[in-house]
Design brief:
By secondary structure, the protein is of the alpha/beta class. It is built from six helices and five strands; from the N terminus they run H-E-H-H-E-E-H-E-H-E-H. Helix 5 links the parallel strand 4 and strand 5.
Length: about 140
């Protein structure tokens, strides 16, 4: 039921959630090489459409698991499913990695030390958090 409600909220609130054309806060164009490390960000990036999908280097290792993802098996096979090891993340040369507060502190520290921009998702309690995550990720991409 929650999955259906979130899918409805995603499609119904995108005009409000995605403020096209607003800067991403860095003074440059939005992120072009994105790695998603949460199923929520996998779903948000998918639902932001082809422009966002074209920038995704890898999605979470659970992207195809219907127990965790509402978009299981939608990402093309060419898009790697990546575990959150710092080595694999760094090897992909991303300019944005979407993680969560529960991502290993060591991984977060390595990414920060390499000056990789992070979007740290915090709060997974309902529509308000989902809309906030969607707005923030869209802004990071500049869409």
């Amino acid at each position: 039921m929650l999955a259906i409600a979130l899918a409805w909220a995603t499609t119904s609130f995108f005009p409000v959630a995605c403020r096209r054309g607003e800067p991403d806060g860095t003074g440059t164009q939005g992120a072009q090489r994105v790695i998603s490390q949460t199923t929520v960000s996998d779903e948000i990036l998918w639902n932001l459409g082809p422009e966002a999908r074209g920038r995704v280097l890898a999605v979470s290792s659970l992207a195809d698991d219907p127990n965790y993802s509402d978009i299981a098996n939608r990402w093309e096979r060419e898009v790697p499913r990546m575990r959150g090891t710092s080595e694999s993340l760094l090897a992909s040369n991303p300019d944005l990695v979407v993680i969560a507060t529960f991502t290993a502190p060591e991984t977060q520290a390595v990414l920060r030390a390499q000056n990789i921009r992070l979007r740290v998702l915090d709060g997974f309690r309902g529509f308000a958090d989902y809309r906030s995550h969607t707005r923030n990720i869209a802004a990071d991409l500049g869409i």
